[in-house]
């Protein structure tokens, strides 16, 4: 057709030689076979059979099929099976809905709304339940503020990022989501969030902690990129990667100890502004239960803006459901947030939620010896424990074992965050297939923005309140934890063999590394004073990075083929 004569026998022999030397060539041939098989109609049929044996069809090819054939392709392609998550989004998009609705209604409307809801679940569970219970556990263990800050507090703040990364790393074809999210969130936080803090409240940053955090983060980024570049990792390398965070924690603790030795300790106390009635008032059990399930503070409601109220109305039903399922222990309160009727209810609902949500509900259908459902056994045990606690405690005085409820709340929160993170990863994978976008670009945009938007608002709020140093420390300290623990635990739970997205991975790692190097050079030159000029520079840097990443994704920027 193009005026060239093709020797099909020579092509067949050449390809057979390549098949013995590189299985990857066969996969490429298989993936493009549908579009080129008509052109090379005389090629040896053994080639097609060899490729079919060695190569597994990728689910991304579903959009190359006709609308009528996509459902059958999703059903018959193992790569399209969504093992994690409660909903098979690919099957829903291509089999349960009319084909003409798939590109617009599902991807741009329903999926985005559901994705927003999942991010709300992640944020609420982490901020309202996971973090407070971790704080209670650290108080029970009598940990210092420095140790608690770089361990339990960092885990609480980074829970959505870490669980999302672990969920994405659990499958090679979604590992790109974790890569894009961790690198994308790192760039977003160190440029947009840090730049916004500098714009709102120019200040002089603490020199040694800033340089320490930047150096450790550069090391983590470089190590991560090396593992991604090779496409595989060993157990020893993964353990060494995790140990880097241990070294970071020890460095923070030792630095704080040396600093405190040189300074006089000044104890400041903040008066608790919580409202307390002048006269004692005893509520009934039903009143305690109803007030405990009310997430709206009427005094705060009157002070807040209409935007905050609108978002609160959206979150309230979900927050009530979480209050029913997850206990919260608050060591700062006089009664440590002991709510007898609600805590007794937690002994029933919390274990049941763990069974139904763990491993995407796999244990919810488990039958003991094929006869007795596991969830029913857990329900009966919860009822028994709840009755004992209710009969042996009072409404006013928390029991000695009340701190154990913090451990229960921590476990339930972790299970729910993990379940929501798995749903986010599965949904983003479906969006990538339908929109023909790579998992990496979805990770560095939607997943990174969704997981980081809470940190953005909280750090900006802290800066406005007059604590910009605390905000900038949170920017770097949190992302170091997310990078090292997210990648390290993901690789430890399952030795990942992933194929990077080539040039896009270079753009991600290079942009993050460049932003850190520029901060490492520019901030000392400015005598560690972060002003509005530096903030504008960081925001412009992120916009340029985003443009370059998207141009790379769509093929406008590519490597020069030789």
Automatic annotation (TrEMBL):
- Give TM regions: 104-126, 147-169, 175-198, 210-229, 241-259, 342-360, 372-392, 404-421, 427-449, 470-496, 502-526, 533-552
A GO BP annotation:
calcium export from the mitochondrion
Q: Which GO terms describe its molecular function?
A: calcium:sodium antiporter activity
What membrane topology does this protein have? Multi-pass membrane protein
* Keywords, alphabetical: Antiport, Calcium, Calcium transport, Ion transport, Membrane, Transmembrane, Transmembrane helix, Transport
Q: What are the subcellular locations of this protein? A: Membrane
Q: Name one GO cellular component term.
A: membrane
What is the protein name given in its UniProt record? Solute carrier family 8 member B1
- In which organism is this protein found? Stegastes partitus
